[in-house]
């Protein structure tokens, strides 16, 4: 079936080198009693059914969004891997479901039964990613007239699996593809893997470094590896000078620049002027000046920057590369540093949701070709403007190199049963009818409005369902006529123990009388009508230009309506100044 190998954690490698397919026949036909169908009609019916299944599952799990062009759904509704991307032929597609069934039926290398979880790897995807990356930069260099080459490195921290690293070095041998290490264990792994790489492949050392780290990096350079030590802090230069003198090995030094360009979202939190890593522009020039004073300026060969992962747009790429290229040109033209490499770091994103929008941390608004063109064009323009020789361009793309190449398979222990479609529709319609029957019937004279207010104003009534029948409407009209005939009794408002006025206001629910809950509906109607009547009188006076009565009871405490500077008092009280 497929070339595979097992490891202790059930790691399954699948390649199409020995992959052979078997023809599967499906007879998904449905014949009504008393009717006859031809073989052609049966075949068309089966094809229609299978294509519908594939379309439904593809849309349900958005496989065409996150999996394009390496995953799809076949006619059986199974997840299908396409190890060569768009160049995958039908005979090279791998049915993941069939692979899992075959693996579970076998045993591991030590004759144990295979269990979940397991990891499926497709190393051909790594090769496609690498070839696409180098092809994109070659096209961009040829199109823009850039007068140097592209040479990438893979950051080991993205995936430290031995097989993954060895495959990447092997697939990128012709392009001198290198590795990046950020710790001493990663540096040891990189030294072992690059022993089989093409001479000239770079070994870039990033991260914070102590004396042991730098000594190990100098040892790698002593055995013939093209190792560059990237300074993250000014203090690391002293350690490099000390270890170099101790071991008798001259290093190649790079400097990480802390750019002002930032990316939005989660991945840009460590970039910008206040970022955690790298040196600001003036400090970079200070390091170059120190090297020149020591006579070691020839150690400085590379400028490196990294503004964050998942750069959403190419506009940010151009801005960052242009800013870094400006620093590079200043180091070459002003300080005379014999620099040859501009390392643009990582940031090449993966469009996980398939929208190509760049509106979230899981989406980017460009493809591989657009990214390469942005990097090359921005570097070329800046170097041409400064009259500096075009440097070798580096990127440390890790996410974009290993994505889609592996998956973890776990066992589904339980699932919620999904009801049949007809039953679900019936239940939904039943709930809709039940909710509709509980809604109050609205009358033309607004009788139900008071009932709704009553429900809102009477929480102690238990929020019971209220049905506004004809009797409720008639009773509401009678109460409304009764309260319109009552004399107006202003509410006396106390503030801080002093009477401030007689303006009718909304009563406090905390001090309601005990009998109010029993007549919550009537209370809500009374307050509503009283408030409307008072507001109508105030607006009538304003429209007709009538002077406000002198009596304090007619004055208003609402904002913007009180007399300037004073608040009217009540019976036996003088007007109070407004604070």
Automatic annotation (TrEMBL):
Cofactor: pyridoxal 5'-phosphate; Mg(2+)
GO molecular function, a single term: arginine decarboxylase activity
Pathway(s) of this molecule: Amine and polyamine biosynthesis; agmatine biosynthesis; agmatine from L-arginine: step 1/1
EC number: 4.1.1.19
Coiled-coil regions, chain positions: none
InterPro entries given in the database record: Arg_decrbxlase, De-COase2_N, De-COase2_pyr-phos_BS, Orn/DAP/Arg_de-COase, PLP-binding_barrel
Keyword Amino-acid biosynthesis: no
Reactions catalysed according to its record: L-arginine + H(+) = agmatine + CO2
GO biological process: L-arginine catabolic process; spermidine biosynthetic process
SUPFAM superfamilies xref list: PLP-binding barrel
Segments of skewed composition (Basic and acidic residues): 457-470
Top EC class of this enzyme: lyase
Keywords: Decarboxylase, Lyase, Magnesium, Pyridoxal phosphate, Spermidine biosynthesis
Region of interest (Disordered), ranges: 457-488, 504-554
Boundaries of every Orn/DAP/Arg decarboxylase 2 N-terminal domain copy: 135-402
Domain of life where this protein originates: Eukaryota
Similarity field: Belongs to the Orn/Lys/Arg decarboxylase class-II family. SpeA subfamily.
Name the UniProt record assigns to this protein: Arginine decarboxylase
């Amino acid at each position: 079936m497929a070339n595979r190998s097992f490891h202790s954690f059930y790691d399954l490698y699948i390649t199409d080198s020995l992959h052979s397919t078997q023809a599967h026949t499906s007879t998904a036909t449905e014949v009504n009693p008393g009717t006859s169908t031809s073989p052609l009609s049966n075949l068309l019916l089966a094809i229609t059914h299978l294509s519908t299944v594939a379309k439904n599952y593809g849309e349900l799990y958005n496989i065409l969004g996150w999996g394009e062009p390496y995953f799809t759904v076949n006619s059986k509704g199974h997840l299908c891997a396409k190890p060569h991307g768009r160049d995958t032929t039908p005979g090279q597609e791998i049915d993941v479901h069939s692979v899992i069934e075959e693996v579970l039926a076998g045993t591991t290398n030590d004759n144990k039964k295979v269990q979940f979880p397991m990891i499926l790897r497709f190393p051909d995807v790594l090769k496609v990613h690498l070839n696409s990356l180098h092809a994109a930069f070659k096209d961009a260099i040829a199109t823009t007239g850039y007068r140097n080459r592209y040479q990438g490195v893979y950051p080991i921290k993205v995936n430290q699996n031995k097989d993954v690293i060895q495959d990447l070095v092997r697939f990128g041998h012709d392009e001198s593809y290198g590795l990046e290490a950020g710790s001493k264990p990663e540096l040891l792994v990189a030294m072992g893997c690059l022993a089989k790489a093409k001479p000239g492949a770079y070994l870039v050392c990033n991260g914070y470094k102590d004396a042991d780290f730098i000594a190990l990096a100098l040892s790698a350079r002593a055995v013939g590896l093209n190792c560059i030590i990237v300074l993250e802090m000014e203090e690391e230069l002293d350690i490099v000078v000390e270890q170099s003198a101790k071991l008798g090995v001259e290093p190649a030094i790079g400097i990480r620049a802390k750019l002002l360009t930032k990316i939005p979202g989660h991945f840009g939190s460590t970039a910008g002027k206040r970022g955690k890593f790298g040196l600001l522009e003036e400090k970079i020039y200070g390091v170059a000046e120190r090297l020149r004073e020591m006579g070691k300026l020839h150690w400085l060969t590379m400028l490196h920057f990294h503004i964050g992962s998942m750069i959403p747009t190419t506009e940010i790429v151009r801005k960052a590369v242009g800013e870094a290229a400006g620093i590079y040109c200043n180091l070459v033209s002003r300080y005379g540093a014999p620099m040859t490499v501009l390392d643009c770091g990582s940031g090449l994103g993966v469009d996980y949701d398939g929208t190509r929008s760049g509106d979230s941390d899981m989406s980017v608004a460009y493809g591989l070709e657009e990214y390469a063109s942005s990097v090359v064009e921005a570097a070329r323009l800046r170097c041409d403007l400064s009259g500096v020789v075009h440097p070798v361009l580096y990127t440390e793309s890790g996410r974009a190199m290993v994505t889609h190449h592996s998956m973890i398979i776990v066992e589904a222990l339980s699932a919620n049963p999904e009801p049949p479609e007809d039953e679900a529709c019936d239940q939904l319609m039943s709930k809709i009818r039940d909710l509709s029957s509980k809604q109050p019937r609205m009358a033309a004279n607004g009788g139900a409005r008071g009932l709704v207010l009553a429900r809102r104003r009477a929480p102690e009534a238990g929020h019971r369902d209220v049905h506004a029948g004809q009797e409720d409407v008639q009773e509401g009209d009678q109460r409304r006529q009764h309260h319109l005939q009552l004399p107006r009794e202003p509410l006396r408002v106390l503030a801080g123990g002093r009477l401030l006025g007689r303006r009718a206001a909304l009563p406090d629910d905390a001090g309601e009388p005990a009998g109010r809950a029993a007549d919550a509906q009537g209370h809500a109607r009374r307050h509503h009508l009283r408030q409307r009547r008072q507001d109508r009188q105030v607006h009538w006076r304003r429209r007709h230009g009538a002077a406000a009565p002198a009596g304090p009871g007619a004055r208003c405490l609402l904002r913007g309506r009180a007399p300037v500077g004073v608040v009217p008092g009540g019976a036996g009280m003088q007007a109070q100044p407004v604070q």
